[in-house]
Design brief:
This protein has 741 residues and is of the alpha/beta class. The protein folds into 4 domains: 36 residues; 332 residues, Alpha-Beta Barrel (TIM Barrel); 190 residues, Rossmann fold; 114 residues, Immunoglobulins (Immunoglobulin-like). The protein is 32% helix and 17% strand. The protein contains 22 helices and 26 strands. The chain has a 6-stranded mixed beta sheet, with helices on both faces. α6 packs antiparallel against α16, α16 packs across α22 and α18 crosses α22. It is globular, with a radius of gyration of 27 Å. Bound molecules: alpha-D-glucopyranose (GLC).
Length: 741
């Protein structure tokens, strides 16, 4: 009997492999059948991506787009959405051009399309992979319903630079968490089984490749320079995870890395991305980043820049018109082998076949579907859910929170009455005119007559004329809810700051309100870690809400009133002040660590502590959690073995709540210096008041691998520490070893 089962299994295996191979062969044959019909002009047309006038996300807009489509000189469009608009352009391509090749429609659907989710840095603070995947899924459904088939997301750039405005678009400082979130977002966009033929999935685009999140001085587009080991061990993992999750497009970054702009970096785009990581999709540049290689000083002119880009492995030129202007002549002059063009066009056509656009170019153009799916109730519910989960309770002295319904509340601050700011940067097609502000939601919950509002001051500038009204308003209330932070334009692209303090005179207003001796709850809206040292002294409670999206006002209200017990944990360190930056939890010990006896000669500041104000992984709850000591299944992890680390967590407070249990590891002695902690596992658990749960983490040797002294990737025998806790600072610890092989 066993023999027959084995034979049956091997037949099934051979059949499925041959089926997979035949599908791939068939796809390649279809691609070549189109490629072989194309003139060189039409081939180059598939390698250009032009912005429509649907939105502006870069420095220039090309005119004559419709003619370009009709002539086959433009095969891909960005910033055009809605069924009506995309159908109009698609019709020109598939009914009026010579070869009728369908268009790709791409857009920055970063954290939602119409239903807007919290900014990505906020969503990452939920540590809830299911909710994050769901957010990307909803974004994909609404984008696809609006005629789009490509999003320029997920942005997976690791960053420890709060001055850089684009930290708002990513998942914070940690490579391990960033990798989990990158994969979750790709699954959300492309579907769990990467079935791009499903008309409710869209092509994901991993960006910005690579290491865009480490600009010197936090200044956007600035130089990136790091050791190859740091690049491979810290910055590469989220890109890798996204590719492994099946992402079928990658966007090059504006920055240079090791002196070579990413858009001309053959090591990055061909040797690493394609050869080592096995990426099979298309590579698109960022907005005019080919042209910008002249500014970088690696190309004397745009023609040379274009040649460098295609030879490095760039398939598509976003908005630069460089490929359009120069590639054909470079082939004619023998400077460029047309085979490179054919390879690029194959990758573009392959994606269009995978999306099903050749079967039905209008598959994303269905008005009834658009009406039915945009702002669907379940989408708004998903946005509300993750918005609540993304909020981080930073302080709550004397249990000022949750607020009690019916209390007289003074809501102060421009951001309290704003809906636009709730959407943050990269709001895609999100509109804020039908949304409710935080103030409106608090009034709806607590009763108009119990809520008094005053703007107090703007989020920037030094106009203090609203202070007196704010103070008189606050005097009427039992508690004060002060909503302060950054205007949405103060983070995102091209929005770096040299200060990370609350802008304007908002903190001055807080100081004035403090003098009233009433409990003050500070609600923060911001797109980056801030220096909150002063606010932390003045506020009784502080709630980090980021920009919480379309349902943000309701989410803030439900958290403030305890309808939802906050569970978010910071994914980027909040420093005591900017002088500590860069500051991140996976630091090295140095030769003179702070704990040395010597009072002077050690790695420290004379004017500030080494520790941050709020560490990575930090977040409070309305309840409290107690951790038992760690129980290890063994003290030694064998080369092919596994350790189990168990800890029992108890909810010792009076509210049901969620806790993100985090596991970190430290390699005590390595062939190179090793971080004092590295996140290697986490689990978000729910505990009723008084309930206990045992959380079990598995430790395997692959989790301990890194790029060793000789740059080989692997583990080393030796002693390790293992930490488990509710953040990267307050942890239980134990030890284990890995034997010599
Ligand atoms: C922008 C951004 C990039 C975006 C692209 C298209 O400059 O850097 O993230 O996807 O242009 O809008």
């Amino acid at each position: 009997m066993k023999k027959y089962i084995l034979i049956l299994l091997s037949i099934i295996l051979i059949f499925s492999c041959t089926k997979k191979i035949s599908t791939k062969v068939q796809l390649n044959q279809k691609v070549d059948s189109v490629l072989n019909l194309m003139t060189i002009d039409e081939k180059i047309g598939q390698m250009v991506l032009y912005a429509s006038d649907g939105d502006v996300t870069g420095s220039k807009i090309k005119s004559g787009l419709v003619e370009d489509i009709r002539n086959g000189n433009c095969g891909n469009i960005l910033n055009a959405y809605s069924v009506a608009y995309t159908r109009k352009l698609q019709k020109i391509a598939v009914e009026e051009s010579r070869l009728k090749i369908p268009l790709l429609f791409g857009y920055d659907v970063i954290h939602g399309h119409k239903t807007i989710f919290p900014i990505s840095l906020g969503e990452s603070a939920s540590w809830d992979m299911e909710a994050i995947e769901k957010g990307a899924r909803v974004a994909a459904i609404e984008a696809a319903a609006s005629g789009l088939n490509w999003t320029f997301a997920p942005m997976v750039d690791v960053s420890v630079e709060p001055r850089w405005g684009r930290v708002s678009e990513g998942a914070g400082e940690d490579p391990f968490l960033g990798a989990k979130i990158a994969a979750a977002r790709v699954r959300g966009f492309q579907g769990k089984d990467n079935n791009l033929a499903d008309s409710l999935t869209i092509l994901a685009c991993v960006k910005h490749f690579a290491a865009y999140g480490a600009p010197q001085a936090g200044r956007d587009y600035n130089t990136v320079d790091m050791s190859h080991r740091v690049f491979l061990d810290t910055y590469l993992p989220p890109y890798k995870a996204a590719i492994e999750a099946g992402a079928m497009s990658v966007m090059t970054s504006f920055n240079e890395l090791d002196g070579i702009p990413s858009t001309a970096n053959k090591y990055l785009l061909t040797d690493l991305l394609r050869s080592e990581m096995g990426f099979k999709g298309l590579v698109v540049t960022d907005y005019t980043s080919i042209n910008e290689m002249v500014n970088h000083g690696v190309a004397a002119n745009e023609a040379q820049a274009g040649l460098m880009a295609i030879k490095a492995g760039v398939d598509m030129d976003m908005q630069g018109e460089v490929y359009f202007k120069y590639l054909k002549k470079q082939v004619e002059d023998g400077m460029l082998d047309e085979k490179l063009i054919d390879d690029a066009v194959r990758r573009v056509l392959r994606v269009k076949f995978l999306l099903g656009l050749f079967d039905d170019p209008y598959r994303y153009c269905n008005e009834a579907r658009e009406k039915r799916l945009i702002y669907a109730p379940e989408h708004l519910e998903a946005a509300l859910d993750v918005a609540k989960k993304s909020m981080v309770l930073l302080k709550n002295d004397n249990q000022v929170l949750p607020l009690k319904k019916g209390e007289k509340i003074a809501v102060i601050g421009e951001l309290a009455a704003s809906t636009r700011d709730l959407l943050g940067s990269w709001k895609a097609a999100g509109d804020w005119d039908f949304m409710k502000s935080t103030l409106e939601e608090i009034k709806a919950f607590n009763g108009d007559k119990n809520v008094f509002f005053a703007e107090g001051c703007k989020t920037s500038g030094d106009d203090r004329s609203g202070f007196s009204l704010a103070l008189s308003t606050a005097r009427k209330a039992d508690k004060i809810v002060l909503v302060i932070g950054e205007n949405w334009e103060w983070s995102g692209e091209a929005a770096s700051r040299t200060s990370i303090q609350i802008p304007g005179v908002q903190t001055e207003l807080l100081e004035k309100l403090k003098a009233l001796n009433k409990p003050i709850v500070v609600v923060l809206m911001n797109g980056r870690p801030l220096d909150l040292s002063r606010e932390n002294q003045l506020a009784d409670a502080m709630l980090e809400t980021w920009y919480a999206g379309t349902m943000g006002g309701k989410a803030i209200t439900q958290v403030l009133y305890g309808e939802y017990n906050p569970s978010g944990k910071l994914t980027m360190t909040f420093p005591v002040n900017l002088g500590q930056v860069p500051i991140y939890y996976y630091a090295k010990n140095t030769g003179r660590p702070i704990y040395l006896e010597n009072p002077k000669y050690k790695s420290r500041y004379i004017d500030a502590p080494n520790d941050p104000l709020f560490p990575f992984g930090y977040g409070l709850s309305y309840t409290t959690f107690e951790y038992s000591d760690i129980q290890l299944s063994a003290n030694e992890l064998k080369p092919d073995g596994e350790l189990k680390a168990n800890v029992t967590v108890k909810n010792t407070g009076k509210y049901d709540g969620e806790e993100v249990v985090q596991m970190y590891v430290r390699d005590l002695v390595g062939s190179v210096t090793r971080p004092v902690k590295e996140l290697k596992g986490f689990e978000k658990i729910t505990l009723k008041a008084g309930e206990s749960k045992t959380v079990s983490f598995s430790i395997t040797p692959d989790m301990l691998a890194f790029h060793r002294l000789d740059m080989s990737y692997g583990t080393e025998p030796g002693d390790y520490k293992l930490f488990i806790g509710g953040n990267s600072r307050d942890v239980k610890e134990t030890t284990f070893t890995t034997p010599n092989p």
